[in-house]
Amino acid sequence: MKALKEKILQEGRLIDNHILKVDCFLNHQLDPQMIQAIGNEFASRFADEGITRILTIESSGIAVAIMAGLALGVPVVFARKKKPVTLEEQVYHSEVYSFTKKEQVDIFVSNDFMEHTDRVLIIDDFLARGQAALGLMDIVRQSGASLAGIGIVIEKGFQDGGRILREKGIRLESLAIIESMSCEGIIFSENA
Amino acid sequence: MKALKEKILQEGRLIDNHILKVDCFLNHQLDPQMIQAIGNEFASRFADEGITRILTIESSGIAVAIMAGLALGVPVVFARKKKPVTLEEQVYHSEVYSFTKKEQVDIFVSNDFMEHTDRVLIIDDFLARGQAALGLMDIVRQSGASLAGIGIVIEKGFQDGGRILREKGIRLESLAIIESMSCEGIIFSENA
User: Which residues pair with A173 in a beta bridge?
Assistant: First the structure.
């Protein structure tokens, strides 16, 4: 997605050559026009998949997912990282290990919002080692729903999450794939 | 906001007569069309305020805030409840006590995304005791920005958050104010 790559080059910042900081438009501050364009792009790429529900994870996935949901006309569910007091007993539960934060988090989705008849699109902001995507896929599997594919805003192509998911035969659409980042700059893969 | 009140009556559920569960369209699953209508309503009510930035708090405020930001054409910042590794030293920090969870959480906003020249609209999904709103207001105050007002989706009128904020002279726009809820149903205030 050309506009996204340009935005990353213009506004992204590298920290210690291995963390890409895009919190000026995606992770902390949100640029609504860009987020909508990203949501529309996911909707367009998955338009033929018969999506009935979008699944993401709090917090950074929510903005992109709701824009995709608006374009596709389907509800969006965000997995919770803490079980809220209002969430009842009947939940799907999985675990996600964060290499960045070096901690394991539990994720929860109410049984009410994922059914075996659903065709689910998973959306998230980043793909690195693929842990969040695998946790969300586990929840889709528990519900008996079918997985249409995964939409990622920025894939770190130099980490193994993308390879792991593609080898499982999953339709993975990353809008920007970063091949490498260093003091010399960010290089995108030709494959996105 | 009539459509919102109807949605609450149709899809909201009372738990133990004191917790309103609206996670089918606002807190866990999101109804994109309704969320957009809510965002548009905030944009319309604050259209004359010269808003330059919207401030909300993760996670449930994000979806509504981005729709308001899209309609107003301004960036949206969501306060973080944990300080991410990518967030640098220069942050505004405040504290929010959650009566529901019985815990204090720290909230953070990068200095980069709130300036003294900003005119800020705070948006959140619920207003009960007003703790989150007060924490966000504290961050606006630290930045030197001016506060245009606060937009709330559902105000619990039987708790004191609304009174506290209005007594401070703050422009508070709640799209639905619940006067009471019990086994006999939900009664809305005439003031919203």
Answer: A151
